[in-house]
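Design job #97: recover the sequence.
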């Protein structure tokens, strides 16, 4: 991979050196993020060289930079772990200096990042691409990633894209593009019947073999959820850890708690290997959540559900970068639960 990467750099971006970030480059990373996003990028640590260096040293991020012959940082991206699922690597923070665009540098950075992630224990890698413009979607799709989830309104409307696109007029929708690090064959997955077809399609695109079971039922252990608010994005995150008795009450409590803290949207995670998945999905959809896609973890699928909480989203402003993404968006928008969201414009 490294040899291939060097060859491509020489062909499409001869002035760039793409490599694992050096500690002394952290200040340049922060300057680059200001240049590309102003002060609007949700992950605020990227603006603080001390935090960037510290997180890299602790292994909390796996960062890659591109530098010019003069040593200036002209590109950056990093992998973190997806919240609650350490075997899912989260690719993000992709930035290329405006003066270095249209030379294939973004793809080079991502290819180097993927090579660096080998051996890190990830089952899958997923990247959240913006939909105000299609460029990050196209860059990551060229590397074999496929769309697996669409999350309306998951990012703040304040984010800006210098010299790429106009500032969003609504909360930004992101698309999760995912790639497996190795082929997987899952044990029984308790998939909800109403979403089984689209889940199978996504799994086929990922190269995952799934055995579907329809015989599951919730266990006797009390239902248990975890929740937290991402204060940088305004997204409330909920993880259904046990789908036993009391699901409706614990989910309602988590929703109420996140609303009180100012959540703009909610994202619910349900593990499809849980025999109580069917009941959990029924409870979630009765509470106003709609199916948004999935992520593949080590032992099974993580089903994602979204709730807009009245946040206004115009689907016509969501720009998909590929036919596969357009099909997934059309499928999600076709669900009655989505059409019934009070914030979704016709």
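Job complete. Output follows.
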């Amino acid at each position: 991979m490294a040899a291939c990467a060097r060859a491509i750099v020489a062909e499409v971006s001869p002035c760039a050196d793409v490599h694992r970030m050096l500690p002394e480059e952290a200040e340049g990373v922060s300057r680059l993020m200001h240049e590309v996003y102003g002060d609007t990028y949700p992950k605020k640590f990227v603006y603080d060289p001390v935090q960037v260096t510290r997180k890299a040293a602790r292994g909390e991020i796996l960062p890659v930079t591109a530098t010019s012959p003069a040593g200036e940082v002209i590109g950056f991206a990093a992998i973190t772990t997806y919240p609650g699922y350490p075997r899912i690597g989260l690719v993000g923070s992709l930035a290329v200096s405006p003066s270095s665009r249209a030379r294939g540098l973004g793809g080079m950075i991502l290819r180097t990042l993927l090579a660096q992630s080998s051996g890190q224990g990830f089952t899958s890698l997923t990247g959240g691409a913006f939909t105000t413009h299609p460029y990050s979607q196209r860059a990551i799709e060229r590397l074999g990633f496929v769309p697996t989830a669409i999350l309306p309104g998951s990012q703040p409307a304040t984010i800006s894209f210098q010299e790429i696109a106009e500032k969003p007029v609504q909360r930004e929708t992101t698309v999760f593009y995912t790639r497996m690090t190795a082929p997987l064959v899952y044990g029984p997955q308790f998939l909800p019947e109403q979403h089984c077809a689209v889940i199978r399609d996504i799994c086929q695109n990922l190269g995952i073999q799934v055995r579907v079971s329809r015989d599951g039922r919730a266990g006797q252990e009390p239902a248990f959820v975890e929740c937290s608010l991402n204060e940088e994005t305004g997204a409330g995150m909920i993880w259904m850890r046990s789908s036993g008795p009391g699901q409706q009450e614990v989910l309602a409590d988590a929703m109420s708690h996140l609303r009180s803290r100012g959540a703009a949207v909610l994202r619910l995670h349900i593990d499809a290997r849980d025999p109580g998945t069917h009941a959990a999905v029924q409870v979630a959809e009765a509470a106003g959540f709609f199916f948004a896609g999935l992520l593949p973890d080590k032992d099974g699928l993580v089903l994602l559900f979204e709730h807009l909480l009245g946040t206004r989203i115009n689907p016509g402003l969501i720009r998909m970068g590929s036919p596969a993404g357009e099909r997934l968006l059309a499928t999600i928008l076709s669900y009655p639960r989505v059409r019934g969201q009070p914030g979704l414009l016709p």
